[in-house]
Amino acid sequence: MWCRIGIASAVFAALWSVLPAWAGNEPPATAVASAPARFRLCSMDVDYPPYARVDGTGHLQYLMQQAARGMGLELERRVAPRRRCVEELKNGLVDGMVGAYSAERAEYAVFPMAGAGPDERKALATPRYFLYRRKGTQVDWDGQRFSGIGDGRIGVESGFVFITERLQQLGISYDDGSKALESNVAKLMAGRLDGVIAMEIEADQLIASRYEGKIERAGKAFEQTPLYLMLSRQFHSQYGRFSDRYWQALYEYRSTADYRQYQQARP
User: Fold this and answer.
1) Could you write out the DSSP letters of every residue in the chain?
2) Structural domains of the chain in order of their starting residue, each with its CATH number
């Protein structure tokens, strides 16, 4: 399902004060010719609060929408399972999706780069991931190694390849069969998992609302991973200069008062 976000003149007037510096200049004809009329964004079909929500009100979805409007770009948002988004990005059926950088993803997607690695200044956000356990159990993470697991498994949401790759390197068994945190926490409560690695903000909110006194955070942060708007190779090949401008517009809009207010209003 595609959701079109139109651009009205009233919106341009309201946003004029926060547009990138180049927005008021007349671009050269070659730049106009190479600019797309729309951008097809694939969003996951589960919530990852506060960054992404199925209804499109997540922080990063708002950020991408406002930056696109400032460039006169129509944003079309498609909602689909993560694996389908990835397949459609590979095949050029969508133009972008949000994700962490990995060598595997860099084979089929393009990230904002600085030298040989991704440009962390252009990250949309940098969430932290922690280990969560049943209250009173001994599983722990000291920043280097796990303890108290034995033959147990750690739950990870499907598609979190940067987490599963690290668990593989550590020789830790994991279950990534669930695409939503709630399912993993239910498995943890039922004793089917020894721990769950989850995004800090989302997990803390879920625990506070439903599992207070039953689930607790354990140890140091397991991972701190920048999230980027990654582009299909087809889109970047056709609109390379425009891609750089969009990444820059996202970087600039992150520091606006409007975006900070939006984040505070929707924690």
Assistant:
1) -EEEE---HHHHHHHGGGS-GGGGS---HHHHHTS-SEEEEEEESS-BTTTB-TTS-SHHHHHHHHHHHHTT-EEEEEEE-HHHHHHHHHTTSSSEEEEE--TTGGGTEE--EETTEE-GGG-SB--EEEEEEETT---EE-SS-EES-TT--EE--TT-HHHHHHHHHHT--EE---SSHHHHHHHHHTTS-SEEEEEHHHHHHHHHHH-TTTEEEEEEEEEE--EEEEEEHHHHHHSHHHHHHHHHHHHHHTTSHHHHHHHHH--
2) 2-124+227-265 (3.40.190.10), 128-224 (3.40.190.10)
Residue 18 has pLDDT above 70, yes or no: no
Question: In the prediction, which pLDDT does 33 show?
Answer: 44
The reported pLDDT for the residue numbered 190 is 96
Residue type, 96: G
Token digits for 267? 């924690």
